[in-house]
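My main concern about presentation is that the manuscript never shows what a single data entry looks like. In essence, backbone conformation is discretised, so a fold becomes a row of integers matching the chain in length. An entry of this sort, consisting of the sequence and the corresponding backbone structure tokens, reads as follows:
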Amino acid sequence: MLYKLIKNLGLVAITQAIIGLSGFLLVVLITRKFGIESNGMLYVIKRGVDFLWVPLLIGLTVSVPRNKPFLDKKDKGSVEFILLLSVPLLAAISFIIGPFMSKMMLGQWSAEYKWLFVILVVSNILQGISYAYFRASMKYNHANVIQLIGFVFVPLVTVWFSGNILEYVTMYSYLFLSVSGLIWLYISSVYLLPEIRKNFANVKKTFAGNTVFLFRYGFNRLPGLIGASVIYTFPALLMNRFASQADVGVFSFIMQFISILSLPINSLGIVLLPHLSARLANQDHAGAQKIVAAILSLFGRAGAVCSVFLLAFFHPILSLITNQEMNIAFLDWFLLGSGLMLVYYNLLRNPIDASSSKAYSTFVVIYSLLSGLGTAAVCLTFLSYMATIKLSIFASFLSMGILSQYFCVKLYRIKIDPNNLMRLIAFYLFVLVGAILISYNYGLMLCLLFIGIMAGVWIFVDAEVKKIFLLVKSFGQNKRLLIK
């Protein structure tokens, strides 16, 4: 089972890395071709679409991967029957409420992009639930293919043939809808309908109870999904209203940069949710605990080192892409540094969701949202709108990362070495000071980078990390012996 986990993780990580590189290339092409202001506008549209389609699915993107192993043990085919009936209905609802929501989300661009907004919402619903089903079935090759089609092939083809930003959004919307629709028809005909036919006698008896169970789990996580969408989306909408288009462009680039870097790391979370759910369904609590403990140990150190490189190379990358010297504000460095905590949340919310039917990940998001709102209430009395928005995001992301780590430790009963914890805290403080130094004197970048590498080596050379690498190495040797 461990070999299968490592194999799936490797394939998903490669796929997510390709998506990240193509996303970076897409940002470069759009910025060079249409300007950084257009990139900011696209980010606002994307965040508005995400804000609508995620709640419309009522948490099914989380509930299906988590609960399919449990439901398949007693009522095989029930998840397929529920999806076949509910997904087309949810897509139809989005056509009804989408035009009204576009006015609130897009503001000045609503009239021009209203129906394209609706089409993108429907496309994301079909793509999201298709991906969730393949995750739940642990068919990661299929999941990887539909991700590559939707997030690499479609956007790169459309940006290549587009002459302006409106043309790009139009071509992308229709092509994405066509691809997502065909994928959903394929899943329905090849996987859902045959499974339903085989188990129809039992499925129709338990349909009501299983539907309530599946949607109740998703509904309990819905406040967290909405809260996360608010944290990601609301600042972009506010900046679109109060800031210049250039500022919105820089802000969107920071957020996209964080997302691109986090994709390979988040690939672990993609595999973890169904894998840990399957282990817990089979009462393998000790195995699940070891996996989560190894992740916390390894990624806590890796994240600390990566944050130094993130801070050191962001400004040159931005200037290279835009082909001009960009002004990075003081608070932008704090925003960029806090992005690491957002990566932690996206990684660790999967083990949190797998551990219990209670919505602990929702608590993480709601508390983080409240910390951001509290920060905004305090800062708004003496700071500008822009500074308040950035500090609020910083507070929210910081809370999301810290709380997600806390709940993983609590729910899986993992023992933490106080010495390692103090070293990590000291290193994160060093990164924060580094952000301040870079913002005032960019010539300190090389010094900061050198110190970061030395500190990173110091962090990694400890017995706990060596145990992880020795475990993987010994497993690989045992696998080769078995093959022989």
Summary: The first helix runs from residue 2 to 34. The radius of gyration is 23 Å.
